[in-house]
């Protein structure tokens, strides 16, 4: 399975567009995704108790097992903490798209990303939706525009795609995501929209999606803040023409593998574009007592401000990594622990069997110059392993978040 | 009870000194606290699974209900993640002080603060201890020197003291603390040394201390990292001459009140000196369903990087506060919520009964110019209330932590 970067219009029957409506100054701010036949829909949502109006509505549509034919996404305003007015405005946004595309309103999903606590400029959005639908396109350009329209503090748009074969039928998956700040490993700290022409039952689509996030989006952290608007959703319209996948057979496993590649890549792209990030960090914890311990330990490492700032400073202050694991809540015995750093400039061992090594600071400085650093931990406590992805914390993180609204 | 800033030599019979030994370049790096008669000892320690050698030893002495007569503290090296050698070195440090002062080794506590994972320069420390003891003084200067010797990234030393009367006897409490980074509300993310001449049983001393940290040190956060070396301890030598406090009577309550004032003040001083902090934040959550919910919600607010950076940027991005409470794990219903900010420049209401208000951005900017900001939340969910203290996150946090070791 070869990964490409072709986005949401890659699978058969999917259209997209991304437009300027004037909500944001000189930047695209509205995206629409459309499938020519109704698609099965699966999704995972933020665990934050405070949920944006769009999340509440999308969740309800998922509970009702609605077939979905279009998604409208605005950037600039999160429509979260906006009370009853926010619920009404979100409904109007769905209604506008349903009217414009002659769809049932329950076939329309909405998503919002941006500042919390500000009401949506409904008139601008509704006019924008009406004017945008004619630009829906199944071309590459439609996907490119949509992916750029959902960006907020993102500096690059994020698209991935993949093809594979099931029963002799070519199946395609495409996806776009946004995410840069307010990213924390507690599903689902970003927006991801995945399209596929696979024919699969809704329960299995949901099962595959729910499984896949555990070791992908849930294992990344930019800043430890779990947003109110996060969602990763997938639409499957069945146009690939394969026999419907209705059990966890080998075809299902092929799909899960493909979905995992898509979600892992999007998760890593989000981290690479982390607010102010100059380096990406990949933590691998081996030898943990349980899989869950391994995950919690990885997250503690990539989520520690002190670890993040040390890597920004290219300082081999490895004690902060052990410290972060120590307060993570997961079991770890520092006595058996080994720790090493690796980058394209080489690797360096820092701790062996719990004993700090006298390491060459010059070599460490060289290794830490890499813009992608692997943090390798072996605990010797058990047989379980996990990986997590984070980024360093730089002056730019402060700059970006010190005046986000202004 | 009037708070003063006289430090650990304030109570009768306590001596201190702070010296240069050469571990740190041109800064004091060794402190000793001594009581002329053995004192009852109570303490609370870090919850980090990785514990410094000094913490392990001090905990054991607490379990053994040892009477304590002296404490030696080094700054620059944490002696944590240093394996068996670290345990031996810590023991040598205690031994040196015991020999110099002709004490039983079990009457000596040790504490270390600084870089994790580096072995102590034992020879320098031992020579330093031998040379330092002659400088022990019950004067104000002894306390001042000790308080400055335990600093690491602290920019100011932290001392408090208090006097009160029990049964007609004047009782004094003195204290010093260090803490600036790796500060997180999960006891005890700093070092605090409290002295008193009160006569009190050891179990009640411990009880008072354990109770007091819940709403003081456990309610502060600089950066969410819980260190491996944290400890808050108290020595009570009984020289005030009051009848021993042996039950939770009114004298005990007076003492608890005094101890709470001491610990609250030290906690706030630590926050004010938070690494890179330009503003202190006090979060008050009222109307929570339980006391614990109120505490968790306060901590989530003061611990959010996005909240911290917004205050640094003087940006009234209040949605981040609601968002942080939402992912805290504690119950909160955003619909009834009210939110306001207050500083010496005025106050501004942002949300009422879950509805965002159209607020005056100029007034908000004015309020946020204050260097001490109150964040006032009322949830209308119940009758419980808590307070937490944090600081903003600035470029200097990144600068300080990007090259801590170098």
Number of strands of chain A: 16
CATH architecture name of the largest domain in chain A: 4-Layer Sandwich
Largest sheet of chain A: 9 strands, mixed
Q: What is the 3D form of chain A? A: globular
CATH superfamily of the largest domain in chain A: L-amino peptidase D-ALA esterase/amidase
Overall tally of structural domains of chain A: 2
Q: Which two protein chains have the largest interface (Cβ within 8 Å of the partner's Cβ), and how many residues from each?
A: A-B, 66 and 66 residues
**Helicity of chain A, as a percent range:** 25-40%
Based on helices, strands and strand pairing, what is the structural class of chain A? alpha+beta
Mean of all residue-level pLDDT scores of chain A: 89
Question: Which structural traits does this protein have?
Answer:
homodimer; 406 residues; alpha+beta; L-amino peptidase D-ALA esterase/amidase; Ubiquitin-like (UB roll); 2 domains; nine-stranded mixed beta sheet; seven-stranded mixed beta sheet
Describe what you observe in this structure.
Two copies of one chain form a homodimer. By secondary structure, the first copy, chain A, is an alpha+beta fold. The first copy, chain A, has helices spanning 53-63, 83-101, 122-132, 140-149, 202-214, 250-272, 291-303, 305-312, 319-326, 361-367, 395-402; strands at residues 3-4, 14-19, 30-45, 68-77, 108-115, 158-166, 169-178, 191-196, 220-221, 231-236, 280-288, 338-343, 346-352, 355-356, 372-378, 384-391. In chain A, the strands form two sheets. In chain A, strands 1, 2, 3, 4, 5, 6, 7, 8 and 10 form a nine-stranded mixed β-sheet that branches. In chain A, strand 13 (346-352) and strand 14 (355-356) form a beta hairpin. The longest helix of chain A is centred in the middle third of the chain and has 23 residues, at 250-272. Chain A starts with a strand and ends with a helix.
């Amino acid at each position: 399975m070869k990964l490409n970067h072709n986005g949401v219009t890659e699978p058969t029957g999917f259209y997209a567009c991304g437009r300027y409506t004037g909500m944001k100054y000189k930047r695209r701010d509205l995206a629409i995704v459309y499938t020519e036949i109704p698609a099965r829909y699966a999704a995972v949502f933020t665990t934050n108790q405070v949920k944006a109006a769009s999340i509440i509505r999308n969740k309800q549509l998922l509970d009702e097992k609605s077939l979905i034919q279009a998604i409208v996404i605005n950037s600039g305003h999160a429509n979260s903490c906006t009370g009853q007015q926010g619920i009404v405005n979100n409904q109007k946004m769905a209604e506008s798209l349903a009217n414009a595309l002659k769809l049932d309103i329950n076939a329309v999903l909405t998503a919002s990303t941006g500042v919390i606590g500000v009401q949506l400029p409904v008139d601008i959005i509704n006019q924008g939706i009406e004017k945008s639908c004619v630009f829906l396109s199944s071309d590459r350009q439609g996907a490119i525009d949509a992916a750029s329209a959902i960006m907020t503090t993102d500096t690059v748009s994020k698209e991935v795609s993949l093809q594979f074969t099931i029963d002799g039928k070519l199946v395609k998956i495409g996806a776009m995501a946004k995410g840069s700040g307010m990213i924390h490993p507690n599903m689902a700290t970003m927006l991801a929209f995945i399209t596929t022409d696979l024919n699969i039952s809704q329960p299995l689509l949901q099962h595959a999606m729910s499984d896949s996030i555990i070791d992908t989006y849930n294992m990344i952290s930019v800043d430890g803040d779990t947003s109110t608007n996060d969602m990763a959703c997938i639409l499957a319209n069945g146009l690939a023409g394969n026999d419907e996948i209705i059990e966890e057979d080998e075809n299902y496993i092929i799909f899960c593998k493909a979905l995992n590649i898509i979600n892992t890549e999007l998760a890593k792209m989000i981290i690479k574009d982390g607010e102010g990030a100059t380096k990406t960090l990949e933590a691998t914890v081996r030898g943990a007592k349980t899989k869950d311990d391994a995950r919690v330990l990885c997250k503690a490492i990539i989520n520690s401000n002190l670890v993040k700032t040390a890597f920004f400073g290219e300082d081999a202050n490895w004690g902060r990594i052990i410290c972060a694991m120590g307060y993570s809540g997961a079991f770890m015995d520092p006595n058996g622990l080994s720790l090493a750093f690796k980058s394209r400039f080489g690797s360096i061992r820092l701790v062996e069997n719990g004993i700090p090594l006298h390491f060459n600071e010059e070599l460490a400085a060289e290794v830490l110059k890499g813009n992608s650093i692997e943090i390798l931990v072996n605990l010797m406590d058990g047989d379980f392993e996990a990986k997590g992805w984070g980024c360093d914390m730089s002056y730019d993180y402060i700059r970006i978040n010190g005046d986000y609204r202004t």
